[in-house]
Automatic annotation (TrEMBL):
Organism name: Erythroxylum novogranatense
Record's keyword terms, sorted: WD repeat
Pfam family, one: WD40
Lineage: Eukaryota, Viridiplantae, Streptophyta, Embryophyta, Tracheophyta
WD repeats: 63-95, 179-220, 222-252, 267-299, 312-341
Domain of life: Eukaryota
The protein's name: Uncharacterized protein
PROSITE patterns recorded: WD_REPEATS_2 (PS50082), WD_REPEATS_REGION (PS50294)
Length: 399
């Protein structure tokens, strides 16, 4: 078929499979039935047509160095961080855009599923069920060196829980562990608005909350979903969204006066497993990408509740990643393309399709390049199963 399989275990959740955990059969090339909501119509106004004509997209460079597929990307300051399926984390300084300085942060254990940067630390989620913390040890302008600082759950957290039977949870027949452990791939991470909390989700169906000051596990929500959890997003109003292979998005809200989250809503419109979530800047719009190639758009009503307002369709295979910048949403797919969508009120259309990767696009990141009243541009980074990271510059005088 021309697409290399993932180098992972049987929990291949970015694809289609039956819900039975003993019979998960991934297939990147065969979309499920699409959600029943109609797609958005293309813009028809003169200003919208001018916008489309003025948008300029081109690939500035391709970053090479990873020897296995690029599984995670994030941007912080002047650096791009990338994680791969062979356990490697790298940093790249791209300034100007057509040059790069690259350094290896680590060669840890377990494929890197997600990266989050907080001040001088990097949190990495891994396939070996761990979350690792890396601390910056060099502050040279063109160099970032990190050393491993901690592994979550920490030894102290584990030791404090191990003696009491109430802290033990059954993970399989005749085997238990403490509730602070993830027992399957840690698939995604997200920081709270004030960066005091780190949320992690896993294929073990749990949602965990960690305190970033001392890395203590504050809460674990068991069976948060009916199947593996693939995505998590934290909003500026404190709500947390989780997307799962069970086709559902769940909304969690902090209980007043406590560090605990309570389940407040379930969003159900997808007809296949959910792989990616992204929020716009004010958290009024949520985007969710699924195995059937569709992207659902959810919008808050006057009561603060999310409701589906339509679907973005154009990708021919699974949506694997999403990122929002300004009023644009970028989507990466198993069809090896990146699409850029723009919303105007409750209407959306596809502004561009970026082609160049030779395999599925697994992860995306974005950063501003320039912004003023007359002209603006931003940069999209795409990581793929072809082991490359492509750097795309997007600009428009009307952005």
């Amino acid at each position: 078929m021309g697409i290399m399989p993932y180098e992972e275990s049987g929990h291949q959740l970015e694809c289609n499979f039956q819900s039975n955990s003993n019979n998960r059969q991934p297939n990147l090339l065969s979309p499920c039935s699409e959600p029943s909501l109609p797609p958005f119509h293309s813009f028809t106004s003169q200003s919208s047509r001018s916008y489309l004509q003025a948008l300029h997209c081109h690939c500035v460079t391709t970053l090479k160095g990873h020897t296995s597929y690029v599984s995670s990307l994030t941007v912080a300051g002047k650096f791009l961080y990338s994680g791969s399926s062979n356990k490697e984390i790298r940093t790249w300084k791209i300034n100007p855009l057509n040059s790069s300085v690259e350094h290896v942060v680590s060669t840890g254990e377990g494929a890197v599923k997600c990266l989050v940067v907080l001040a001088d630390k990097v949190f990495s989620a891994h396939q070996d069920h761990k979350i690792r913390v890396w601390k910056l040890t060099s502050h040279e302008p063109d160099e970032q060196k990190y050393t491993r600082f901690a592994t979550l759950p920490t030894f102290g957290d584990r030791a404090s829980k191990i003696l009491l039977p109430k802290n033990q949870v059954k993970i399989r027949r005749h085997k238990t562990c403490t509730w602070v452990h993830h027992v399957d791939t840690v698939s995604a991470l997200a920081l709270s608005r004030d960066e005091s909390l780190l949320y992690s989700v896993s294929w073990d169906r749990t949602l965990k909350i960690w305190r970033t000051s001392d890395f203590k596990c504050m809460e674990s929500i068991a069976n948060a979903h009916d199947d593996a959890i693939n995505a998590v997003a934290s909003s500026n109003d404190g709500d947390v969204y989780t997307g799962s292979a069970d086709k559902k998005i769940k909304v969690w809200r902090k209980i007043q006066g406590a560090q605990k989250l309570s389940h407040v809503a379930t969003l159900e419109k997808h007809n296949s497993g959910i792989n990616a979530l992204a929020l716009n800047s004010d958290a009024s719009v949520l985007f969710s990408g699924a195995c059937d190639g569709s992207i659902m758009v959810w919008q808050k009503d006057d009561g603060g509740n999310m409701g589906a307002v339509g679907a973005l369709r154009g990708h021919t295979q699974s949506i694997l990643c999403l990122v929002v910048v300004l009023d644009l949403v970028c989507s990466g797919s198993a069809d090896s393309t990146v699409r850029i969508w723009r919303g105007l009120g409750r209407d959306y259309c596809c502004l561009a399709e970026l082609e160049g990767h030779k395999a599925p696009v697994k992860c995306l990141a974005a950063s501003f390049d320039r912004y003023d009243q007359s002209n603006s541009s931003f940069v999209v980074y795409s990581g793929s199963l072809d082991c490359d990271i492509k750097v795309w510059q997007i600009s428009s005088p009307l952005l």
